[in-house]
């Protein structure tokens, strides 16, 4: 057992907490949206659009997407760190993952704020 | 202290002979389902956006998701989400030191696997 203090030197505590905080946010959103969709049962385009046009739903859906992308970044980064050893390739994959996830955030915003 | 880390231990990394205990299976499935969902993100975002664009695309998706191949693919995605959700809640509880003894951890791992399947079927039935 190596005795080290888990602060100040980028041991990953921030990411560890962020992964769990975003997980909790997404779990709450999932249960809430399941309840909303079960109650409203939007079976037509108009009803479906109206659900996400609601200001509150729009806000929490965007929050969900941002949490999802941050959560996915930590998870996917861990996968690259576990299985991809050559530094250049790993760095490339990290950059590509970030590019994709930042792009998805913008995409999600345009989908929601077009409504 | 340093000697312990340098000491050579027997090592088996042959995936065909490793017999993972149940919590190990839940763990690797958590990673696999997460990676799968990540890879499907662009398709899911596109579907979400298009479904909110016009009544025509919404109607197209409604008829598309009435076909069997689409339903099977969707069932897989729902399972991945449900499994990741259930296993994630188990990990959060383990982080809070709930059920960390061997027997409880094995039981909760089994519960994740067992609960995910009917929950997927229920959601599948409700959504489609």
Task: Write the SSE topology.
The complex is a heterodimer of chains A (115) and B (128).
Chain A: H1 13-40, H2 45-53, H3 55-83, H4 87-113
Helix pairs in contact in A: 1-3, 3-4
Chain B: H1 2-6, H2 22-51, H3 55-64, H4 68-95, H5 102-127
Structure description:
The complex is a heterodimer of chains A (115) and B (128). Chain A is mainly alpha-helical. Chain A is 81% helix and 0% strand. Chain A has one domain: 3 helical TM bundles of succinate and fumarate reductases, CATH 1.20.1300.10. The longest helix of chain A has 29 residues, at 55-83. With 128 residues, chain B is an all-alpha fold. Chain B has a single domain, classed as 3 helical TM bundles of succinate and fumarate reductases, CATH 1.20.1300. Chain B has five helices and no strands. The chains are: A mainly alpha (115), B mainly alpha (128). The A-B interface holds A 1-2, 20, 23-24, 27, 30, 38, 44-46, 48-49, 52, 72, 75-76, 79, 100, 104, 107-108, 110-111, 114-115 and B 1, 5, 31, 34-35, 37-38, 41-42, 45, 48-49, 51-55, 58-59, 85, 88-89, 92, 95, 126.
Which CATH class of chain A? Mainly Alpha
Whole-number radius of gyration of chain B? Answer: 20 Å
- Please report the distance between the alpha carbons of the first and last residues of chain A: 55 Å
The percentage of residues in β strands of chain B lies in: under 5%
CATH topology term of chain B? 3 helical TM bundles of succinate and fumarate reductases
Q: What is the correct CATH architecture of chain A?
A: Up-down Bundle
Question: What is the domain tally of chain A?
Answer: 1
Gyration radius of chain A, to the nearest Å? 18 Å
Biggest interface between protein chains, with counts per chain? A-B, 26 and 25 residues
What letter string, H or E per element, gives the SSE order of chain A? HHHH
Name the shape of chain A in a single word. Answer: elongated
User: CATH homologous superfamily name of chain A?
Assistant: Fumarate reductase/succinate dehydrogenase, transmembrane subunit
Uncertain segments of chain A of ≥5 residues (pLDDT<50)? none
